[in-house]
Amino acid sequence: MRLKLLTLALAMAAISLPSHGEDLLDAYQQARANDPVLAQADATRLSTGEGVDQARALLLPQVSAGLTFSQTKSDGSEIIEDPNNPGQTIDSSGFGHTRTRDISGQLSQSVLDFSKYANLKAAHSAADAQDQTYQAALQDLFVRVTTAYFTVLTDEDELTFAKANEDALKRQYDQADQQYKVGVAAITGAYQAKAAYEAAKAQTIVAQNTLDNDREALSQITGQPTGNLKKLRNDLPLDPPIPNDADAWVKTALESNPSLLAQRDNVETAEHNISAARAGHLPTISANVTYGKSSSWYQNADIHQNTPASTTIGLTLSVPIFSGGLVQSQVRQSIDQRDAAQDAMESARRQIKASTLNYYRSVLAGIAQVQSGKAAVQSGQEALEATRAGFSVGTQTMTDVLLAIQTLTSSESTYSQARHQFVLNKLLLLQSAGTVELKDIQTINALLQ
What we know:
Elements: H1 2-16, H2 24-34, H3 36-57, E1 62-72, E2 79-81, E3 89-91, E4 98-112, H4 114-181, H5 187-222, H6 246-256, H7 258-278, E5 284-298, E6 304-318, H8 326-393, H9 398-433, H10 438-445
Antiparallel strand pairs: 1-4, 2-3, 4-5, 5-6
Helix pairs in contact: 1-4, 2-4, 3-4, 4-5, 4-7, 4-9, 6-8, 7-8, 8-9
């Protein structure tokens, strides 16, 4: 009877929901558009990618131009050659300020600079690492949304069980109190039933508060208020992982997990940084083309002096000799950073391997947990009915009845949690392997009703 009442309570709760209740796919689509964590990862990815263009730009021609205008004040007279009458001189006093205009242009092209080539390779590796980090953030969004969604579903079940438990204990308390009042039972039973009932009321309040908090946590990810959520259907398929081989999952994880791939790219970036630092000992060659033209005139005289335009073409060889130990220090620093990146990659590799094995085992264990949880609920129902029957004929005490009610409620809670966690563990296994995709969310969404 107890199981039927709880099943009916859950069914009535489902009937009260509108047919267009929000499902997991709706929540994911909202989070995909509004989640600030993913948006931050995307912005960081784009920002890091600009480093490739910036490093490549240093290998391309550099063009600059300049225009300088200056004015010089003269405090005395000066004898100068008359530009309009060559061979004759004139006194420049009274001509006013001397004004000069210089036009210049420069084209330079790096011909040989190993550090710039190494920096370009490092920028590519850093961009690849950030691309993988973004993919990890995208996969993490799948898990975060699903975890928050199923946490709310678990909380809703907990609230339903808490209310049903409260109602059952209330009826038991009313019965015990009535029996005491008519003199067929001692006051002790009424006290026990009331204590259990009051404790159940407190549990209901806690369950409601937990549900409200976790609904808000889901809204924090989606950026939208959390509406009525579709629930996990009863006929949950309990399929083992495919392939059903732990080593195969570990191999896939070590080859495909985006967080580990990002660490590998970080190591590659550090290797290129070492090459760039060592290139500080090597000579560089650059090609240069410069152009210059100058003219001057007086403020109060129509006298102009023009310097013929000049163009200079040449190669510049720069050979580093001594920089106070700067280059050696930069090389050592880059090597230390490479070693740190390798250690981080090894740590990530071990963590991913352990997580993959843990989730694989959890999925297998979850099958048995769901099956045993279902059996525990059925057994708890039968035990409660038998205990109540025994209490009515005097072979069972009030304590036995209250314990049976609490045992059944605990079994129902454990069963609900096991069902939801089984689904989550399968998704977490896919995430650890680095293969979780939108279709996996769609598959889980198909289990809702």
